[in-house]
Amino acid sequence: MKKILIIFLAFIAFTAACKKEETSTDSSTDFKDAIILNEPKIYGDSVVVLTWSIKDRSKFKSIVIIRNDNINNAPPSFIGVSLDSSQYIDTLIPYCPRFDYNIRGYIKGTNSQFYFSNSYYFFDNEISKFEIKPTNILHDKENKFIYFFESNGNISLYDIAKKAIIKTVTIGNGNGNCDFGYYNGVQELYIPDDNGWLYVYDAQNLTEITKFNVGNSLTSVVENNNILFISNTLGFDNSLIAFDRATGKNISTQVTDKIVCLKKVSNSQTNLWALCESSWNNFSYFQYDNQNNPINSPNQLSLTFPADIFTFPFESSPQGNYMLFSSGGNIITQDYIIKYNLPKGSYKFSSFTIDKENNRILGTTSSKTIEVYDATTFKFIKSIRTKTYPMHVVIQNKRLICVGSLVNIVNDSYSNADKITVEELKY
Length: 427
Fold this sequence. Notes:
By secondary structure, the protein is mostly beta strands. 0% of the residues lie in helices and 54% in strands.
């Protein structure tokens, strides 16, 4: 199998490094090389010019170009062209890590017999792929790391600069929603475990520092000035604990519904959003005083929420006055008013990222795009295409690092992704 490394000029910038692999699929002896596909020409990121030659056009009744996107086991695209033609300009090339072309010639006097030309395969080496099924993703902007958490307890550390997984560890029996913090000058990663342990790891090298037996099953943790707010659940015994990192002791305990995920309210040191599961699903808003004691019972909003409310992460706004959630782009204020839905057309969101610096919302969608909105007015700003189905996006050095999947995961959880991909995009 012949492999050719092609380096394109700057104005032919489909990819910086793109491999082409040529294979012969016509094994006949009486009509060898009946159709020959020449090396395609690539222009920009959306145009491919195909040319071919046919030994004897009189033997064929039709010619079809076949384009295979190699994504999600999707059927190939069939592009009909004139029998007399020898060129086709494809302006709808797939925005994906791999695709290929070949020509099929259907033989006269037969129902469906045909000859294949040789094929050209395109591989985008700018996309990294990993055998990971994440249930949660965290970004460390300062150190240019992304953390992938899996349901089996695996935690993988991805180095953005190196474009590589540099370490994987297995912790506990399954991890909840984690958070970062600093203690004694060391950046720590706090990992709640199904068996009631709160693991404390060095965030830079994923080595264990200590662990605390908090009890029951831990689902989420949020750090604030060395105080850890931990959701603790077992059957009907559910609580939110304020836990002192220094002493390893509880400060306060508040009875709650079963908390699935906690988020700290932006621009607040003592307020938390919580997504809760009970006989009715609700969002709760918790407030604490300066001694980390609950001020009052949490405000709750119980409504008929979208079915995927527990599937995808929710995010607090830059100012902390509203929260984003679900594939519909729903927005809820602190006063528990469903204020708005992000304008999205038929798109479904899989996650949200808040760009505080530019006051923007970035929503990854089921249509291989990242939709960008003003975080105050919710007006649409622009759409950014991705090569795979985006699961989560982070901002690093004014570039987007997009974690994606080869399969569409918007109607299910991250963990059903076949493989994850990581690609860098202009912002």
